[in-house]
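Batch manifest, entry 17 of 40.
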Amino acid sequence: MPRRFYLLLTLTTLAGAFLRLWQLTAVPPGLHYDLAATALLGNEVAFNGLRPVFITAFTGHEVLFYYWLALWFRLIGSSIFSLRLAAALIGVLTIPAAFFAIREALRFEEHAFTIAAFGAACLSFAFFHVAFSRFGLRVITQPLIQSLALGFLFRGLHRLSTLHAPPSTDLPRTSHIRLLTFNFRLWTLDMGLAGLFTGLAAYTYLAARFFPIPLAVFWLAVLVGSVVPRSTLHPPRSTDLPFVLLSFVIFFLTALL
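Output type: C-alpha cells
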C-alpha cells in the first residue's frame, strides 16, 4: 500500500478516536434503560460466571459484546466509563476494518485505495456510527465483524486469481507453474477467517440475521461465474470450479462451526 494511504488511514482513525472518546462519560448525557440492562448483563458475565451462547433476558441479546464488555469490567472495573469505553474502542477499530473491506472488494479498481480511504473517512465522521460508539450498545459490534468477514472473503478469493495464467501458447505448462507457486496456506487462512467472522456476526446484533442472504447471492454468482464463460476471450479455466467449491466449503464449514 502506498505510504500516503498509511498516513491518511492513521489520521482518519485518530480523528474517529477523538470523536468517539472525548468526554465519553458526559456525552451523551444520562443513561438509557437499555444501557442499564447492558451493564447488568455485563456484570453477570464478568463476575457471576454467566457463560451464555444467547441471552434470553431483556427480550433477548446476542452475546459477543457482553464477553468483550466483561473483559473491560474485569480489567478496570464496572462503571459507566468502562461500559462506554468498550463500545467506543470497537467503533474505532471499525474504521481500519472498513478500509480493509473496501480495499479488498475493489482490489481490481484503479483507485481502490482512494475509495477505501474515502469510505473510512466517511465512517469516521458518520453521525450514526459516532453516536452508537458512544452509547455503549451491542449493535456497534456488527459493522466491525461484518467488515472483517467481507475483507477476508474478498482477499481469499482474490488469491485464486494468481492461478489464472495470462493467454499463452503454453497455457498448460503456465497453469502448472502457477499451481505450484500458489500459496495454499494464506488462501486457506483467509477463507477460514472469512467464515469465522461470518459465523461470529450471528452473535453481534439481530440485524446480522440477514447477512447470509447477500452472501448466498454472492457465492451463487461466483459459482456460476466459474462455469459460465464471460466471453470467448475469457472462458472458464480448469482450476476455477474446484478451487471455488473448495473455497466455499472452507468458508461454510468455518462459519457453521
